[in-house]
Design brief:
two-stranded antiparallel sheet; 32% helix; Rossmann fold; alpha/beta; 334 residues; nine-stranded mixed β-sheet
């Protein structure tokens, strides 16, 4: 149920700046207090991030009138929990309008910010779309959780391409999250589920503000996925190409081939009976991280499939957020 305390919508004004109208309620506004950034500052951060990046795709943002990561719209939605506020956000990614859900603890504000987190969904297009209940469950653990739909979904512009150009939707989501007034300053951790794991690790490789990454039932080797999932081959050939003819595109989407470029801690969560992404991908990722001398942890859940039953899922979430919180605390002390 929506407790009705916040009625808020953010749009872009004639001059290109964000204009927020807020009626009575949570008292969240665009201020620079408590570690928040103004939309203009978010634009500057996006431009700085792009200027520092070696990625040609990100460099394009310097030519955009609307900077990458800029919030265009914030629409309140009904929430099933009184202590969690839910929104649909629209933001800029490489000149496209991309959408996603934001779940925020009701106690979070510019004066009392909470850490931010990005949840990277699995699947493609309608398959594996973000579930509101999922991100609200995460937010109840004390985080402002944003889950991008990726380009072309739920009214967004463009077309997602399974870890191709849509990878920038996650990078620019980090800029977006860091600009929100109720989000605490600092690195932004990511949880990637299934195909979302490669999106999260791509962001960790390319985006300097990415924090610890959780790989949950995650794809770490797309070549392996092509062989393992006969039912996905048609989609993969259409969206990515054939693994023999477009091997470079497959390597770019396979974290096991570039783990030396990952500098953040990684936690692997996987069910040993996963029928969609075999546990061999988790073990291969762990072996690669071990060889590369990276900070990682792995928790295998005996007999569990791709999606965990509710009780086991809640226990796994507790372990995941305990690990994330610990790693963020270590980073603050460093």
């Amino acid at each position: 149920m929506n407790d009705g305390r916040t009625k808020e919508k953010t749009t872009v004004g004639a001059g290109g700046g964000a204009v927020t109208s807020i009626s009575e309620g949570a008292g969240i506004g665009w201020t620079t207090g408590g570690g928040a950034q103004t939309p203009e500052a978010a634009g500057e951060s996006a431009a700085d991030s792009c200027a520092a990046s070696s990625s040609p795709g990100e460099a394009f943002c310097r030519k955009r009138e609307q900077p990458n990561g800029m919030l265009l719209e914030r629409e309140p939605l009904k929430s099933r929990y009184r202590d969690i506020l839910l929104y649909r956000l629209t933001y800029v990614s490489e000149g496209l309008r991309v959408k996603g859900y934001l779940a925020v603890p009701a106690a979070a504000s510019a004066l009392s910010p909470y850490p931010g987190l990005i949840y990277c969904r699995g699947g493609i297009r309608k398959v594996g779309m973000v579930r509101k209940r999922r991100i609200m469950s995460m937010a109840r653990r004390g985080y402002c959780v944003f889950a991008p739909f990726y380009r072309g979904n739920e009214g967004g512009e463009g077309r997602e391409d399974f870890g191709g150009e849509d990878r920038y939707d996650v990078c620019h989501a980090i800029t977006l999250v860091r600009s929100l007034p109720e989000v605490k300053r600092g690195p932004v951790p990511l949880i990637g589920f299934s195909r979302g794991a490669m999106m999260a690790l791509l962001a960790a490789k390319q985006c300097p503000d990415a924090g610890p990454v959780v790989v949950w039932g995650g794809v770490s080797d797309l070549f392996h996925t092509y062989e393992e999932r006969v039912d996905l081959r048609r989609m993969l050939k259409r969206v990515v190409g054939h693994p023999r003819k477009q091997s470079e595109a497959y390597e770019e989407r396979s974290p096991v081939y570039w783990l030396e470029r990952i500098s953040v801690p990684v936690m692997i969560v996987h069910g040993t009976a996963d029928s969609q992404v075999g546990v061999a991908q988790a073990r291969k990722l762990a072996e690669g991280l071990e060889r590369a001398g990276k900070d990682y942890a792995m928790e295998l859940y005996e007999g569990l499939d791709h999606r965990f039953p509710k009780e086991e899922d809640e226990k796994a979430l507790d372990a995941v957020f305990g690990w994330i919180t610990g790693k963020l605390a270590q980073a603050e002390q460093a």
